[in-house]
Design brief:
Elements (H helix, E strand, L loop, with lengths): L16 H68 L6 H20 L4 H27 L2 H10 L1 H81 L13 H74 L5 H29 L8 E4 H11 L1 H7 L2 E4 L4 E4 L1 H17 L8 E9 L2 E7 L32 H11 L4 E3 L8 E7 L15
Amino acid sequence: MDSTPSAYEGTLAGWTTRRWLRTGVAAALIVLAVLGSLGGWAMWRTSQLTTELVDKRSPALIEAMRVQQAVVNQETGIRGYGLSGRRDYLQPYAQGQADEKTAIRRLRPLVERDARARADLADVQKIAGTWQTRIARPISAASPADAVTLATQRAAEGKATFDELRRALTRQQSHLLRERAAATHDLRHAQTLRNWMFAVIAGVILLLASGVFEGLRRGVTTPLAQLGFDAREVAGGHFDRPIVGTGPADLRRLARDVESMRQRLVQELEFSEASRRLLDEQAADLKRSNAELEQFAYVASHDLQEPLRKVSSFTQLLQRRYGDQLDERADQYIGFAVDGANRMQKLINDLLAFSRVGRVHNDHETVDLEAVMRRAVDNLDVAVEESAAEITHDTLPTVVGDITQLTMLWQNLLSNAIKFRSPDQPPRVHVGAVSSDGIWEFTVSDNGIGIDSEFREKVFVLFQRLHTKDSYPGTGIGLAMCKKIVEFHGGTITIDPDYSPGTRVVFTLPAVGDTPAALPREPQP
Protein backbone atom coordinates (compact mmCIF):
# COMPACT_ATOMS: atom_id res chain seq x y z
CA MET A 1 0.00 0.00 0.00
CA ASP A 2 1.07 3.60 -0.66
CA SER A 3 0.18 6.41 1.69
CA THR A 4 -0.38 8.87 -1.21
CA PRO A 5 -3.87 9.40 -2.61
CA SER A 6 -2.73 8.43 -6.13
CA ALA A 7 -2.20 4.84 -4.99
CA TYR A 8 -5.95 4.51 -4.46
CA GLU A 9 -7.12 5.91 -7.78
CA GLY A 10 -9.11 3.70 -10.09
CA THR A 11 -10.71 0.48 -8.97
CA LEU A 12 -8.77 0.32 -5.68
CA ALA A 13 -9.93 3.74 -4.47
CA GLY A 14 -13.04 2.29 -2.85
CA TRP A 15 -11.25 -0.52 -1.00
CA THR A 16 -11.60 -0.29 2.77
CA THR A 17 -9.12 -1.45 5.38
CA ARG A 18 -11.25 -4.54 5.99
CA ARG A 19 -11.20 -5.44 2.29
CA TRP A 20 -7.44 -4.95 2.06
CA LEU A 21 -6.97 -7.10 5.15
CA ARG A 22 -9.33 -9.79 3.90
CA THR A 23 -7.58 -9.93 0.53
CA GLY A 24 -4.15 -10.01 2.13
CA VAL A 25 -5.15 -12.62 4.68
CA ALA A 26 -6.78 -14.79 2.02
CA ALA A 27 -3.67 -14.65 -0.18
CA ALA A 28 -1.44 -15.38 2.79
CA LEU A 29 -3.61 -18.31 3.84
CA ILE A 30 -3.49 -19.77 0.32
CA VAL A 31 0.30 -19.50 0.23
CA LEU A 32 0.61 -20.94 3.71
CA ALA A 33 -1.80 -23.75 2.84
CA VAL A 34 0.30 -24.71 -0.20
CA LEU A 35 3.53 -24.50 1.77
CA GLY A 36 1.97 -26.41 4.64
CA SER A 37 0.81 -29.15 2.28
CA LEU A 38 4.31 -29.48 0.81
CA GLY A 39 5.86 -29.48 4.27
CA GLY A 40 3.35 -32.03 5.47
CA TRP A 41 4.07 -34.25 2.48
CA ALA A 42 7.82 -34.00 3.14
CA MET A 43 7.31 -34.88 6.80
CA TRP A 44 5.02 -37.79 5.87
CA ARG A 45 7.53 -39.10 3.31
CA THR A 46 10.39 -38.87 5.78
CA SER A 47 8.35 -40.55 8.48
CA GLN A 48 7.30 -43.33 6.09
CA LEU A 49 10.89 -44.05 5.04
CA THR A 50 12.05 -43.93 8.65
CA THR A 51 9.37 -46.40 9.62
CA GLU A 52 10.30 -48.65 6.69
CA LEU A 53 13.97 -48.62 7.67
CA VAL A 54 13.53 -48.90 11.43
CA ASP A 55 10.55 -51.22 11.59
CA LYS A 56 11.18 -53.50 8.60
CA ARG A 57 14.52 -53.37 6.81
CA SER A 58 16.86 -53.37 9.78
CA PRO A 59 14.83 -55.90 11.82
CA ALA A 60 14.58 -58.18 8.77
CA LEU A 61 18.39 -58.19 8.35
CA ILE A 62 18.86 -58.83 12.06
CA GLU A 63 16.44 -61.76 12.05
CA ALA A 64 18.14 -63.21 8.92
CA MET A 65 21.44 -63.13 10.77
CA ARG A 66 19.80 -64.84 13.74
CA VAL A 67 18.53 -67.57 11.40
CA GLN A 68 22.04 -68.08 10.11
CA GLN A 69 23.45 -68.20 13.63
CA ALA A 70 20.80 -70.71 14.68
CA VAL A 71 21.55 -72.95 11.67
CA VAL A 72 25.31 -72.80 12.39
CA ASN A 73 24.64 -73.81 16.01
CA GLN A 74 22.58 -76.76 14.82
CA GLU A 75 25.34 -77.90 12.44
CA THR A 76 27.91 -77.56 15.22
CA GLY A 77 25.84 -79.71 17.55
CA ILE A 78 25.20 -82.42 14.94
CA ARG A 79 28.83 -82.51 13.88
CA GLY A 80 30.03 -82.78 17.49
CA TYR A 81 27.58 -85.58 18.25
CA GLY A 82 28.52 -87.44 15.05
CA LEU A 83 32.22 -87.30 15.86
CA SER A 84 32.12 -88.03 19.60
CA GLY A 85 28.85 -89.81 20.17
CA ARG A 86 28.24 -87.68 23.29
CA ARG A 87 24.64 -86.62 23.90
CA ASP A 88 25.55 -83.33 25.56
CA TYR A 89 26.89 -82.12 22.22
CA LEU A 90 23.28 -82.01 20.96
CA GLN A 91 22.48 -79.07 23.25
CA PRO A 92 23.50 -76.43 20.62
CA TYR A 93 21.37 -78.33 18.07
CA ALA A 94 18.24 -78.16 20.25
CA GLN A 95 18.80 -74.52 21.13
CA GLY A 96 19.49 -73.70 17.45
CA GLN A 97 16.19 -75.24 16.39
CA ALA A 98 14.27 -73.10 18.87
CA ASP A 99 16.16 -69.96 17.84
CA GLU A 100 15.57 -70.74 14.15
CA LYS A 101 11.81 -71.06 14.65
CA THR A 102 11.67 -67.81 16.61
CA ALA A 103 13.73 -65.86 14.07
CA ILE A 104 11.72 -67.19 11.10
CA ARG A 105 8.44 -66.37 12.86
CA ARG A 106 9.65 -62.76 13.30
CA LEU A 107 11.16 -62.54 9.83
CA ARG A 108 8.13 -63.76 7.87
CA PRO A 109 5.82 -60.71 8.48
CA LEU A 110 8.75 -58.35 7.81
CA VAL A 111 9.23 -59.65 4.25
CA GLU A 112 5.63 -60.45 3.32
CA ARG A 113 5.45 -57.44 0.94
CA ASP A 114 8.87 -58.12 -0.65
CA ALA A 115 8.70 -60.86 -3.30
CA ARG A 116 12.45 -61.41 -3.52
CA ALA A 117 12.85 -61.54 0.25
CA ARG A 118 9.99 -64.05 0.45
CA ALA A 119 11.69 -66.17 -2.22
CA ASP A 120 15.00 -66.03 -0.35
CA LEU A 121 13.29 -67.10 2.87
CA ALA A 122 11.52 -69.95 1.11
CA ASP A 123 14.80 -71.11 -0.46
CA VAL A 124 16.51 -71.04 2.95
CA GLN A 125 13.69 -73.00 4.56
CA LYS A 126 13.68 -75.56 1.73
CA ILE A 127 17.41 -76.24 1.91
CA ALA A 128 17.33 -76.21 5.71
CA GLY A 129 14.50 -78.76 5.59
CA THR A 130 16.52 -81.01 3.27
CA TRP A 131 19.51 -80.80 5.61
CA GLN A 132 17.27 -81.56 8.60
CA THR A 133 15.68 -84.56 6.85
CA ARG A 134 18.84 -86.10 5.45
CA ILE A 135 21.43 -85.26 8.08
CA ALA A 136 20.34 -83.61 11.33
CA ARG A 137 17.30 -85.60 12.39
CA PRO A 138 18.71 -89.10 11.55
CA ILE A 139 21.96 -88.43 13.38
CA SER A 140 20.33 -86.81 16.40
CA ALA A 141 17.84 -89.67 16.69
CA ALA A 142 20.50 -92.43 16.39
CA SER A 143 22.36 -94.02 19.30
CA PRO A 144 25.88 -92.73 20.00
CA ALA A 145 27.56 -95.65 18.14
CA ASP A 146 25.17 -95.48 15.20
CA ALA A 147 25.40 -91.70 15.10
CA VAL A 148 29.17 -91.84 14.55
CA THR A 149 28.76 -94.40 11.78
CA LEU A 150 25.90 -92.48 10.13
CA ALA A 151 27.78 -89.19 10.33
CA THR A 152 30.79 -90.76 8.66
CA GLN A 153 28.67 -92.23 5.89
CA ARG A 154 26.85 -88.94 5.15
CA ALA A 155 29.65 -86.54 5.77
CA ALA A 156 30.07 -85.55 2.13
CA GLU A 157 26.35 -85.15 1.53
CA GLY A 158 25.94 -83.14 4.75
CA LYS A 159 28.78 -80.82 3.83
CA ALA A 160 27.41 -80.18 0.36
CA THR A 161 23.89 -79.56 1.64
CA PHE A 162 25.05 -77.23 4.41
CA ASP A 163 27.31 -75.29 2.03
CA GLU A 164 24.31 -74.77 -0.21
CA LEU A 165 22.35 -73.57 2.87
CA ARG A 166 25.16 -71.14 3.70
CA ARG A 167 25.06 -69.74 0.18
CA ALA A 168 21.27 -69.31 0.42
CA LEU A 169 21.62 -67.49 3.75
CA THR A 170 24.35 -65.30 2.29
CA ARG A 171 22.17 -64.40 -0.70
CA GLN A 172 19.30 -63.56 1.63
CA GLN A 173 21.46 -61.29 3.76
CA SER A 174 23.01 -59.64 0.69
CA HIS A 175 19.57 -58.83 -0.70
CA LEU A 176 18.40 -57.48 2.68
CA LEU A 177 21.58 -55.41 3.04
CA ARG A 178 21.07 -53.86 -0.39
CA GLU A 179 17.43 -53.11 0.41
CA ARG A 180 18.36 -51.50 3.71
CA ALA A 181 21.06 -49.45 1.98
CA ALA A 182 18.52 -48.32 -0.62
CA ALA A 183 16.03 -47.39 2.13
CA THR A 184 18.78 -45.48 3.96
CA HIS A 185 19.63 -43.60 0.76
CA ASP A 186 15.96 -42.76 0.16
CA LEU A 187 15.63 -41.56 3.76
CA ARG A 188 18.64 -39.28 3.47
CA HIS A 189 17.32 -37.89 0.21
CA ALA A 190 13.89 -37.31 1.78
CA GLN A 191 15.47 -35.60 4.82
CA THR A 192 17.49 -33.33 2.55
CA LEU A 193 14.38 -32.49 0.55
CA ARG A 194 12.46 -31.86 3.76
CA ASN A 195 15.15 -29.54 5.14
CA TRP A 196 15.30 -27.55 1.91
CA MET A 197 11.53 -27.37 1.78
CA PHE A 198 11.28 -26.06 5.33
CA ALA A 199 14.02 -23.54 4.60
CA VAL A 200 12.02 -22.35 1.61
CA ILE A 201 8.85 -22.23 3.73
CA ALA A 202 10.65 -20.18 6.39
CA GLY A 203 11.94 -17.79 3.73
CA VAL A 204 8.49 -17.39 2.17
CA ILE A 205 6.94 -16.80 5.61
CA LEU A 206 9.55 -14.12 6.35
CA LEU A 207 8.89 -12.46 3.00
CA LEU A 208 5.15 -12.70 3.60
CA ALA A 209 5.49 -11.23 7.10
CA SER A 210 7.67 -8.43 5.74
CA GLY A 211 5.13 -7.71 3.01
CA VAL A 212 2.24 -7.68 5.49
CA PHE A 213 4.16 -5.41 7.86
CA GLU A 214 5.08 -2.99 5.07
CA GLY A 215 1.54 -3.00 3.70
CA LEU A 216 0.07 -2.30 7.14
CA ARG A 217 2.62 0.42 7.75
CA ARG A 218 1.91 2.22 4.50
CA GLY A 219 -1.81 1.62 4.27
CA VAL A 220 -2.94 1.66 7.92
CA THR A 221 -0.46 2.74 10.57
CA THR A 222 1.01 5.72 8.69
CA PRO A 223 -2.42 7.21 7.75
CA LEU A 224 -3.66 6.53 11.28
CA ALA A 225 -0.57 8.13 12.79
CA GLN A 226 -1.04 11.23 10.59
CA LEU A 227 -4.73 11.37 11.47
CA GLY A 228 -3.92 10.98 15.17
CA PHE A 229 -1.30 13.74 14.98
CA ASP A 230 -3.75 16.12 13.33
CA ALA A 231 -6.44 15.21 15.88
CA ARG A 232 -4.04 15.85 18.77
CA GLU A 233 -3.11 19.20 17.28
CA VAL A 234 -6.78 20.12 17.13
CA ALA A 235 -7.30 18.84 20.68
CA GLY A 236 -4.35 20.97 21.79
CA GLY A 237 -6.15 24.11 20.67
CA HIS A 238 -5.13 24.46 17.01
CA PHE A 239 -8.71 24.48 15.75
CA ASP A 240 -7.69 26.07 12.45
CA ARG A 241 -5.58 23.04 11.42
CA PRO A 242 -7.32 21.16 8.57
CA ILE A 243 -7.43 17.36 8.67
CA VAL A 244 -6.70 15.58 5.37
CA GLY A 245 -7.18 11.80 5.21
CA THR A 246 -5.05 9.30 3.30
CA GLY A 247 -5.06 5.54 2.97
CA PRO A 248 -8.01 3.18 2.43
CA ALA A 249 -11.54 4.45 1.88
CA ASP A 250 -12.71 3.98 5.46
CA LEU A 251 -9.72 5.89 6.86
CA ARG A 252 -10.42 8.72 4.44
CA ARG A 253 -14.05 8.74 5.51
CA LEU A 254 -12.91 8.80 9.13
CA ALA A 255 -10.68 11.80 8.37
CA ARG A 256 -13.61 13.58 6.73
CA ASP A 257 -15.76 12.88 9.78
CA VAL A 258 -13.06 14.22 12.11
CA GLU A 259 -12.73 17.29 9.90
CA SER A 260 -16.49 17.84 10.12
CA MET A 261 -16.25 17.45 13.87
CA ARG A 262 -13.43 20.02 13.97
CA GLN A 263 -15.52 22.50 12.02
CA ARG A 264 -18.48 21.86 14.32
CA LEU A 265 -16.23 22.35 17.35
CA VAL A 266 -15.11 25.68 16.00
CA GLN A 267 -18.74 26.69 15.53
CA GLU A 268 -19.75 25.50 19.01
CA LEU A 269 -16.75 26.90 20.88
CA GLU A 270 -18.22 30.34 21.51
CA PHE A 271 -21.59 28.87 22.48
CA SER A 272 -19.90 26.43 24.89
CA GLU A 273 -17.90 29.21 26.48
CA ALA A 274 -21.03 31.25 27.01
CA SER A 275 -22.81 28.20 28.44
CA ARG A 276 -19.93 27.55 30.82
CA ARG A 277 -20.09 31.10 32.16
CA LEU A 278 -23.84 30.72 32.61
CA LEU A 279 -23.37 27.41 34.44
CA ASP A 280 -20.77 28.94 36.74
CA GLU A 281 -23.21 31.68 37.64
CA GLN A 282 -26.01 29.15 38.22
CA ALA A 283 -23.72 26.95 40.34
CA ALA A 284 -22.82 29.91 42.51
CA ASP A 285 -26.50 30.79 42.87
CA LEU A 286 -27.35 27.17 43.70
CA LYS A 287 -24.61 26.97 46.32
CA ARG A 288 -25.85 30.17 47.93
CA SER A 289 -29.44 28.90 47.76
CA ASN A 290 -28.49 25.59 49.41
CA ALA A 291 -26.73 27.39 52.23
CA GLU A 292 -29.76 29.64 52.75
CA LEU A 293 -32.09 26.62 52.59
CA GLU A 294 -30.06 24.76 55.20
CA GLN A 295 -30.10 27.77 57.47
CA PHE A 296 -33.84 28.16 56.87
CA ALA A 297 -34.48 24.48 57.74
CA TYR A 298 -32.54 24.80 60.97
CA VAL A 299 -34.25 28.05 61.98
CA ALA A 300 -37.67 26.80 60.88
CA SER A 301 -37.29 23.62 62.91
CA HIS A 302 -36.52 25.61 66.06
CA ASP A 303 -39.21 28.22 65.36
CA LEU A 304 -41.77 25.46 64.79
CA GLN A 305 -40.87 23.68 68.00
CA GLU A 306 -41.37 26.80 70.13
CA PRO A 307 -45.17 27.10 69.54
CA LEU A 308 -45.48 23.33 69.91
CA ARG A 309 -43.80 23.52 73.31
CA LYS A 310 -46.17 26.34 74.25
CA VAL A 311 -49.21 24.33 73.15
CA SER A 312 -48.05 21.33 75.14
CA SER A 313 -47.08 23.34 78.24
CA PHE A 314 -50.19 25.46 78.42
CA THR A 315 -52.46 22.51 77.70
CA GLN A 316 -50.89 20.59 80.59
CA LEU A 317 -51.13 23.72 82.78
CA LEU A 318 -54.80 24.01 81.87
CA GLN A 319 -55.34 20.40 82.91
CA ARG A 320 -53.59 20.82 86.23
CA ARG A 321 -55.37 24.07 87.13
CA TYR A 322 -58.87 23.24 85.96
CA GLY A 323 -58.70 19.44 86.08
CA ASP A 324 -61.38 19.19 88.79
CA GLN A 325 -63.75 21.30 86.70
CA LEU A 326 -63.37 19.22 83.50
CA ASP A 327 -65.02 15.95 82.66
CA GLU A 328 -63.35 12.79 81.38
CA ARG A 329 -63.85 13.72 77.72
CA ALA A 330 -62.09 17.06 78.24
CA ASP A 331 -59.14 15.26 79.85
CA GLN A 332 -59.02 12.96 76.81
CA TYR A 333 -59.00 15.92 74.43
CA ILE A 334 -56.21 17.56 76.40
CA GLY A 335 -54.23 14.28 76.21
CA PHE A 336 -54.73 14.21 72.44
CA ALA A 337 -53.44 17.77 72.13
CA VAL A 338 -50.35 17.08 74.25
CA ASP A 339 -49.61 13.87 72.39
CA GLY A 340 -50.04 15.55 69.01
CA ALA A 341 -47.71 18.39 69.98
CA ASN A 342 -45.07 15.93 71.21
CA ARG A 343 -45.36 13.82 68.06
CA MET A 344 -45.08 16.90 65.86
CA GLN A 345 -41.95 17.96 67.76
CA LYS A 346 -40.41 14.50 67.30
CA LEU A 347 -41.32 14.49 63.59
CA ILE A 348 -39.59 17.83 63.13
CA ASN A 349 -36.45 16.57 64.89
CA ASP A 350 -36.44 13.38 62.84
CA LEU A 351 -36.92 15.30 59.60
CA LEU A 352 -34.05 17.59 60.50
CA ALA A 353 -31.81 14.57 61.25
CA PHE A 354 -32.91 12.93 57.98
CA SER A 355 -32.10 16.05 55.95
CA ARG A 356 -28.64 16.27 57.53
CA VAL A 357 -27.56 12.77 56.37
CA GLY A 358 -24.79 13.29 53.84
CA ARG A 359 -24.66 17.06 54.38
CA VAL A 360 -23.80 17.89 57.97
CA HIS A 361 -22.14 14.62 59.03
CA ASN A 362 -19.84 13.83 56.12
CA ASP A 363 -16.45 13.08 57.69
CA HIS A 364 -15.27 9.83 56.15
CA GLU A 365 -12.66 8.11 58.28
CA THR A 366 -11.68 4.62 59.39
CA VAL A 367 -14.41 3.39 61.74
CA ASP A 368 -14.18 0.37 64.03
CA LEU A 369 -17.64 -1.17 63.94
CA GLU A 370 -16.95 -3.03 67.18
CA ALA A 371 -16.76 0.33 68.99
CA VAL A 372 -19.80 1.62 67.09
CA MET A 373 -21.78 -1.48 68.12
CA ARG A 374 -20.84 -0.99 71.79
CA ARG A 375 -21.88 2.66 71.65
CA ALA A 376 -25.23 1.81 70.01
CA VAL A 377 -25.95 -0.89 72.62
CA ASP A 378 -25.04 1.53 75.42
CA ASN A 379 -27.48 4.10 74.00
CA LEU A 380 -30.22 1.43 74.06
CA ASP A 381 -29.34 0.22 77.53
CA VAL A 382 -32.76 1.06 79.04
CA ALA A 383 -34.72 -0.65 76.22
CA VAL A 384 -32.46 -3.71 76.40
CA GLU A 385 -32.90 -4.00 80.15
CA GLU A 386 -36.68 -3.52 80.07
CA SER A 387 -37.19 -6.10 77.30
CA ALA A 388 -34.54 -8.58 78.59
CA ALA A 389 -33.09 -8.53 75.06
CA GLU A 390 -30.04 -10.61 74.15
CA ILE A 391 -27.79 -9.02 71.49
CA THR A 392 -24.91 -11.00 70.00
CA HIS A 393 -22.69 -10.29 67.01
CA ASP A 394 -19.89 -11.73 64.92
CA THR A 395 -16.48 -10.14 64.90
CA LEU A 396 -17.13 -6.81 63.17
CA PRO A 397 -14.62 -5.26 60.73
CA THR A 398 -13.23 -1.81 60.16
CA VAL A 399 -14.84 0.27 57.40
CA VAL A 400 -14.54 3.80 56.02
CA GLY A 401 -17.45 6.10 56.78
CA ASP A 402 -18.95 8.71 59.06
CA ILE A 403 -18.97 7.47 62.66
CA THR A 404 -22.05 9.49 63.64
CA GLN A 405 -24.16 8.17 60.77
CA LEU A 406 -22.97 4.57 61.31
CA THR A 407 -23.88 4.85 65.01
CA MET A 408 -27.36 6.05 64.01
CA LEU A 409 -27.61 3.12 61.57
CA TRP A 410 -26.82 0.43 64.18
CA GLN A 411 -28.94 2.14 66.82
CA ASN A 412 -32.01 2.32 64.56
CA LEU A 413 -31.70 -1.30 63.43
CA LEU A 414 -31.21 -2.65 66.97
CA SER A 415 -34.01 -0.41 68.30
CA ASN A 416 -36.43 -1.75 65.68
CA ALA A 417 -35.45 -5.33 66.50
CA ILE A 418 -36.21 -4.71 70.18
CA LYS A 419 -39.33 -2.61 69.59
CA PHE A 420 -41.09 -5.05 67.22
CA ARG A 421 -40.51 -8.07 69.43
CA SER A 422 -42.77 -11.06 69.87
CA PRO A 423 -45.07 -10.71 72.87
CA ASP A 424 -44.45 -14.27 74.12
CA GLN A 425 -40.64 -14.31 74.22
CA PRO A 426 -37.75 -11.90 74.91
CA PRO A 427 -36.01 -10.50 71.84
CA ARG A 428 -32.94 -12.31 70.51
CA VAL A 429 -30.88 -10.20 68.09
CA HIS A 430 -27.78 -11.38 66.21
CA VAL A 431 -25.56 -9.26 63.97
CA GLY A 432 -23.59 -11.18 61.31
CA ALA A 433 -20.74 -10.04 59.07
CA VAL A 434 -19.35 -11.78 55.95
CA SER A 435 -16.81 -10.44 53.43
CA SER A 436 -16.97 -11.23 49.70
CA ASP A 437 -15.16 -9.54 46.76
CA GLY A 438 -14.31 -6.35 48.66
CA ILE A 439 -17.83 -5.97 50.10
CA TRP A 440 -18.94 -6.53 53.68
CA GLU A 441 -22.44 -7.97 54.05
CA PHE A 442 -24.09 -7.39 57.43
CA THR A 443 -27.24 -9.03 58.75
CA VAL A 444 -29.39 -8.01 61.72
CA SER A 445 -31.63 -10.98 62.60
CA ASP A 446 -34.31 -11.06 65.29
CA ASN A 447 -37.12 -13.32 66.50
CA GLY A 448 -39.79 -10.64 66.45
CA ILE A 449 -43.13 -10.27 64.71
CA GLY A 450 -41.57 -10.13 61.22
CA ILE A 451 -42.61 -8.18 58.10
CA ASP A 452 -45.06 -9.47 55.49
CA SER A 453 -43.64 -9.85 51.99
CA GLU A 454 -45.81 -7.11 50.48
CA PHE A 455 -44.37 -4.54 52.92
CA ARG A 456 -40.64 -5.36 52.56
CA GLU A 457 -40.06 -2.43 50.19
CA LYS A 458 -42.62 -0.10 51.75
CA VAL A 459 -40.90 -0.02 55.16
CA PHE A 460 -37.97 1.96 53.70
CA VAL A 461 -40.26 4.81 52.55
CA LEU A 462 -40.40 7.95 54.68
CA PHE A 463 -43.23 8.01 57.31
CA GLN A 464 -44.49 4.56 56.31
CA ARG A 465 -45.89 2.73 59.34
CA LEU A 466 -47.31 -0.79 59.44
CA HIS A 467 -48.83 -0.45 62.93
CA THR A 468 -50.71 2.20 64.88
CA LYS A 469 -48.85 4.50 67.24
CA ASP A 470 -50.70 2.91 70.15
CA SER A 471 -49.27 -0.53 69.32
CA TYR A 472 -45.71 0.55 68.50
CA PRO A 473 -44.54 4.15 69.05
CA GLY A 474 -42.40 5.98 66.52
CA THR A 475 -42.53 8.28 63.50
CA GLY A 476 -41.89 5.78 60.70
CA ILE A 477 -38.63 7.40 59.69
CA GLY A 478 -36.08 4.95 61.18
CA LEU A 479 -35.66 2.52 58.27
CA ALA A 480 -35.84 5.37 55.74
CA MET A 481 -32.89 6.98 57.55
CA CYS A 482 -31.06 3.62 57.58
CA LYS A 483 -31.55 3.32 53.81
CA LYS A 484 -30.25 6.85 53.25
CA ILE A 485 -27.18 6.24 55.44
CA VAL A 486 -26.32 2.92 53.75
CA GLU A 487 -26.74 4.33 50.24
CA PHE A 488 -24.68 7.40 51.19
CA HIS A 489 -21.85 4.99 52.12
CA GLY A 490 -22.15 3.17 48.76
CA GLY A 491 -24.12 0.12 49.96
CA THR A 492 -27.59 -1.42 49.64
CA ILE A 493 -30.16 -2.50 52.21
CA THR A 494 -33.01 -5.02 51.91
CA ILE A 495 -35.24 -7.32 53.95
CA ASP A 496 -34.39 -11.03 53.59
CA PRO A 497 -37.58 -12.63 52.20
CA ASP A 498 -36.53 -16.19 53.16
CA TYR A 499 -35.87 -15.52 56.85
CA SER A 500 -38.53 -16.73 59.28
CA PRO A 501 -39.68 -16.36 62.00
CA GLY A 502 -38.75 -12.78 62.69
CA THR A 503 -36.97 -10.24 60.51
CA ARG A 504 -33.51 -10.14 58.96
CA VAL A 505 -32.21 -6.84 57.58
CA VAL A 506 -29.34 -7.27 55.11
CA PHE A 507 -27.11 -4.36 54.11
CA THR A 508 -23.66 -3.96 52.54
CA LEU A 509 -20.73 -1.59 53.04
CA PRO A 510 -17.47 -1.36 51.04
CA ALA A 511 -14.49 -2.98 52.74
CA VAL A 512 -11.27 -1.16 53.66
CA GLY A 513 -8.33 -2.12 51.41
CA ASP A 514 -6.27 -3.57 54.25
CA THR A 515 -9.20 -5.25 55.99
CA PRO A 516 -8.74 -9.05 56.24
CA ALA A 517 -10.76 -11.00 53.67
CA ALA A 518 -12.62 -12.89 56.39
CA LEU A 519 -12.78 -12.84 60.16
CA PRO A 520 -13.73 -15.69 62.54
CA ARG A 521 -17.47 -15.76 62.99
CA GLU A 522 -17.67 -16.40 66.71
CA PRO A 523 -20.78 -14.86 68.32
CA GLN A 524 -19.83 -12.35 71.00
CA PRO A 525 -22.32 -11.06 73.58
